[in-house]
Structure formats: C-alpha cells, structure tokens
Design brief:
- The complex is a heterodimer of chains A (127) and B (219).
- Chain A has 127 residues and is an alpha+beta fold.
- The termini of chain A are far apart.
- Chain A has a single domain, classed as Ubiquitin-like (UB roll) (Roll), CATH 3.10.20.
- In chain A, the strands form two sheets. Chain A has a five-stranded mixed sheet with strand order 2-1-7-3-5.
- Chain A contains four helices and seven strands.
- Chain B is mostly helical and 219 residues long.
- Chain B has a domain of 142 residues: Ferritin, core subunit, four-helix bundle (Ferritin), CATH 1.20.1260.10.
- The longest helix of chain B is centred in the last third of the chain and has 30 residues.
- Classes of the chains: A alpha+beta (127), B mainly alpha (219).
- Chain B: One of its GO terms (cellular component) is cytosol.
- Chain B: This is Protein distantly related to ferritins.
- Chain B: It holds the Pfam family Ferritin.
- Chain B: Keywords: Iron, Iron storage.
- Chain B: One of its GO terms (molecular function) is ferroxidase activity.
Chain lengths: 127, 219
C-alpha cells in the first residue's frame, strides 16, 4: 500500500465500561494522519489516554486492535507475539487503514507480557 | 494521655505503627499511594539506567570535550534524581527490587544504548559511530524523562505535595537537559543555532533544582 503524508484514517477509540478513566464507556471517532500516532491524535482531540514514555517502551498506553491495521515501527519494545495477540502501543502506532482500538489495557497487557516472559511483565507483577 | 481526651488520628489508631498517616492522607485525597510508589520505582529505574547508559555515551563522545561536559552534567543529575526519590519509595512502604534486572526491566524509559553494534571481539564497533547519533539518543532519553515526571506531577498535584515537590524539581532539570541536547544536536547535525539559553552549571552535575534544598545529604 502506498502512503502519503496527508492521508488520514478514521480511528475509533473505545474506552471500556469498566475503565477507571473518566471517559469510561465512551467511543470516539478521530481522523488520524498516516504520520500521526493514535495517542497524539487522541490527546490533541481532548481524549486524554494514559501514556508515559511515548516511545513504545513502558506499555502504559497498551490497547487492543479489534479492527484495521497499524504500523508500529518506532516502538522500542514491541514483540511479534504482541502483534499476533492484537496488542498495540498507541504512543507509537500509526493507522494504515480505518481502525478500531480498545484502550486502557495496561493491566491485561502486563499479564500477557508476563505469560510470555517479556518485560516489563514479571518485573512489575512480582513486585 | 488523658482517658477523657482521644488522640486525633483520623483512620489510623493511636500508636498503630502498621500504617502511615503520611500515606493515608494521600489516599484520602484520591491517589492510591501503592500505585504512586510503583510508578516512582519505574521512574527512578529510568533515572538509574540512564545514569549507567550516559556513562557509556559520554565515553564515546571522544574528543568532543564540550559535549562530554554537558553529558556529564546530565549523567550526574540523573543519579541525583534517583537518590532524591529513593527515600520517598521507602516512606510509601516500598523498596527497590532485589534484582537489578527487574529494576531495569521495569524502568519507564528505554535503554539509552550507544547507537552502534558490537564488533566481533565483543567491543563497540565505532567505525560508523557518529556524534549526532549519540546526541539524538541523549535527547530522546531526556524527552522520555520529561514525560514521566510530568505524569507524576499530574498524579500528585493537589494530593501529595511531598512527591509533587520532588517531581517538579526533577522535571525542571530534565527540561534543562532537553534544551541542552536540542542545542547541541541542532548545531552538530543541521549546523543550526538553536540556543538552550542556559549558563553553565556551577559544578558538574550541580542539580540546582533537585539539590538546592537538600532532602538528605546523598541526594
């Protein structure tokens, strides 16, 4: 697929009902540029998603991709099994199609990383 | 103590040493002190690993004495940040991980490795190592730290003035560091003048915000 920097995709952000975020239960449709991260687009639109490093390392922003496709080339710590299980890191993920993501998945993602013996899973859960 | 006069102690019973009012007052204000403590461990994990990695980055700025000086300031100040916050973690009834590998794994920022592969003899392959690449690693490490301490300021604002005070002091210095490396990388890579607008530290690693009113002698 060819990409141009002015191409945009509709990213649907689903905040689960049981999320501790103020936006729990809400769904947002955002237009996100192909060169823009989902996190940056959400925060610019006033949807304050959790994040920390914004370099694809700490996993605070972890989300589940339920539809569509993203590119994650700049994530500093992202594994094949994350991709296969449908986890993304919105701080570095850029849409490549119209996409739907379920955000605020940090706790589940830590369990997943721990089960796969990948950091920071066990180092966080064993503390 | 008079039997008629009860000791005012909120939810912590008089003489109860199993709880800390210093933590409970934070909880009363809506912040989970255990969650905060764990976030602090992640944050100072990043300060500690950065201190380590900056040592190596500094060494590989061979011949670039001005860059080495600035990197040394940032290196020592990141260590000062680690030492500033360690006591707070114990106050909040936490501790450093026993295994340093766990500490590094949970650090909230990426490893700031020398941007070059290892050679066949196990040393760094420096044949294509460029100064601008090292400066970019330093810059991005500082940017991560700014984001981390901003999150902690957000988390503690209006609820935990003690941690907030530490975090905002550290944040001040991380913002200094970012400005330094923007200036150096702009000049080195793009030949652009992009001043940080700062004067030199009084001494290497002076940490004027995080140690100008010391919480303890080691910080």
């Amino acid at each position: 697929m060819t990409q141009s920097s002015n191409e945009t995709w509709t990213v649907t952000i689903v905040v689960p009902e049981d999320s501790s975020l103020e936006e729990a239960g809400e769904t947002y449709d955002l237009e996100v540029g192909a060169d823009e991260t989902i996190l940056a687009a959400a925060r610019s639109a006033g949807v304050w998603l959790p994040a920390d490093c914004q370099q694809g390392w700490c996993t605070t922003c972890a989300a589940r991709l339920v539809d569509g496709d993203v590119a994650n080339p700049n994530a500093r710590r992202y594994y094949d099994e994350d991709d296969e299980a449908g986890y993304i890191l919105p701080c570095t993920a850029k849409p490549r199609t119209d996409t739907t993501v379920v955000v605020d998945q940090y706790d589940d993602f830590l369990e997943f990383r721990a089960a796969n013996d990948r950091p920071p899973g066990n180092s966080k859960l064993d503390s | 103590m008079s039997d008629e006069k009860e000791h005012g102690s909120g939810s912590v019973a008089p003489g109860d040493t199993s709880k800390r009012v210093g933590a409970e007052v934070i909880r009363e204000r809506g912040v989970d002190p255990e969650e905060l403590r764990e976030k602090l461990i992640d944050a100072i994990g990043a300060e500690f690993t950065t201190y380590y990695y900056y040592t190596n980055l500094r060494m590989h700025l061979a011949g670039e004495e001005d860059y080495k000086e600035i990197t040394e300031d940032a290196r020592l100040e990141d260590r000062a940040h680690f030492e500033l916050v360690v006591p707070r973690i114990y106050e909040l009834e936490g501790s450093l991980p026993n295994d340093i590998r766990d500490f590094a794994d949970r650090a909230s920022c990426p490893d700031a490795e020398v941007p070059t592969p290892m050679d066949d003899s196990g040393g760094f392959d420096t044949s294509d190592l460029a100064v601008e690449d090292i400066l970019e690693v330093l810059l991005e490490a500082e940017r991560c730290a700014i984001r981390t301490w901003s999150e902690i300021c957000d988390m503690t604002r209006g609820a935990d003035p003690r941690t907030y005070d530490m975090a905002q002091r550290i944040l001040n210095e991380e913002m200094d560091h970012e400005a330094w490396f923007i200036e150096l990388l702009s000049k080195e890579r793009d030949d652009e003048i992009n001043p940080a607008g700062h004067f030199a530290r009084g001494e290497p690693g002076d940490a004027p915000y995080s140690t100008n009113n010391r919480f303890n002698d080691s910080a």
